Amino acid sequence: MQKHTYGSGLIGNCAYIAHVELDTNISWLCFPRFDSDFIFGGMLDREKGGKFTVLPETDTFETTQTYVENTNILETLVSYDEGSYRVTDFAPRFKNFDRYYKPLMLIRKVECVSGSPKIKINCQPVTDRGERQLTPSFGSNHIRYMGIDQELRLTSNAPLSYIQDGKSFGLHKTIYLVLTYGRPLEAPIETTSERFLKETTAYWQAWVKSTHIYNFHQKLVLRSALILKIHQYEDTGAIIAASTTSLPESPGSTRNWDYRYCWIRDTYYTLTAFSGIGHFEELEKYFEFIQNLPSDEEGRYQPLYSITGESSLVEEISPLYGYLGNKPVRFGNQAYTHIQNDLYGQVLVSLLPLYSDQRFTESERSSSQPMIMNLLDKIEETMHEKDAGLWEFRNLAQEHCYTFLFHWAGACAAAKIGIRMKNDTMYSKAIELRDQAIKKIESCYLPDRKAYGQAVGSSYMDASTLQLITMGYFGEDLERANNHLKALEEDLLAKDFLFYRYKHMDDFGVPETTFLICAFWYIEALACVGRIDEAVEGFGTLTKYCNHLQLFSEDVDQKSGSQWGNFPQAYSHVGLMNAAIRIGKKLDRPTFL
């Protein structure tokens, strides 16, 4: 069975994300927001999705892709008989006038590396989900694409007629292609592009140097951190689960979802990973996002929101061909209507560093006491309520062990917050809810398995309960932790340390692929119970399930090793980072050894 991997890398600047394929095509780019209509969507439809390529004059060529070290700047080297050239793609991001400059601007630098290559540039943006190509209109040094509200402009020092005609020309000088949405580039193209490239390189490399990480698999952790960083929409602080939609969890499964939204749960995991490497600016921005979220009349939150906090994310089916023909293609996500009660505890745990870490001052969270009390109220109100769980079952409501785990964790966090804020009412209520949550977790215990089931009354094993171990629910009782881990291994462990979420029937059948974050939870659990050698071996084994740029998808087919699901998946990179941090702590030793 042929192995499938995603042949693209990402660039971004916390305002937009673009996917660049190995053939130089910009196969996914949404303007002006992560969840907007796409300008380029060849990932989902080669005919309707438009294209933006820098190709040689022949169909026979080879390409390699690498990131500029410790940056989100992507280089694609194209080689063929007549020579080779490099395409450098980046999204400008750097400090300017005490603010981050992050324009809706994609810059492509094309330079000769060897020989006398000829290139042809093809830029065909679209709108209305691929139903309309934009109409080009020529200026003196740019092409304006008509048909959308904001101006989309390609500014270049390349011959515009050749671009429009798709005609090849000799690469006798370095070419710059600057695609802008809204305000165009009105400055010297060569010097400005070079300055932006230099400044963006310096920004990312400085950001990396400000991280605190262990020596264990540093390169992978840094790449994951860089990718996670550009999944935050900095304007509001929202963090998306993935930049893509409708990439199938397995071929023909119809499990094709739009992940370009902010899940409260996913954000909890992402912020945990950032905290683990000593980065808190993402948490501070997210705190602003949470404070501005709408809730219903009862003060309840949804599982997910748009990146600007909009609550209605109506799911629509598009007639697009789909990734490799996989349908349906969805825009929007019905999960916004679900009841997922774990989210209240996740918000509390996410925000805990603002209160428990002495690096934050009182003024940075002084107005949040009502929000904390409301979250505790919601834990209390939903303690006995069935929900869809973290796997978002569409037609199955249960009292999930995972939900109770976060009721417990959220209450523990709120108790600490109460102490810091000298709020006795908050502390007392949190302790009471913590004890209630423990009783609910124990109601999921299966004596014959010496393990905890998916939900009250369920005998199914669920990988989410690995976090009973990783989140410290068992305390120092390694026997209980190992017994639970053994039962999960018996039911859900696949080859090469891969792990299934669960193996029972759901709304769409029995899951066919393993879920990568579950595998990293498993690795982390191994480290927690002292099985360090296995954790180290497993981590190294799982790292082979990346693409050529060390980017990880949501799902892995254990039979073929193929990547599936939305890509790259923030969840998976978070799992990698947290597992590496956990192992790094266990292996902590002097750097010279």
Give the total of beta strands.
30
Approximate helicity band: 25-40%
Total helices: the number is: 14
Task: Provide the structure class.
Answer: alpha+beta
Strand order within the widest sheet? 6-7-8-11-19-17-16-15
Give the strand content.
15-25%
Largest sheet properties: 8 strands, antiparallel
Query: What is the mean pLDDT?
Result: 91
* Tertiary shape: globular
* Alpha-carbon Rg, integer: 25 Å
End-to-end C-alpha gap: 42 Å
Runs with pLDDT <50, length 5+? none
Keywords: Hydrolase
Organism: Algoriphagus namhaensis
GO molecular function: hydrolase activity
Protein name: Glycoside hydrolase family 15 protein
General description of the model:
Helix content is 32%, strand content 20%. A hairpin with a 2-residue loop joins strand 7 and strand 8 (83-90). The longest helix has 21 residues, at 189-209. 49% of the residues are buried.
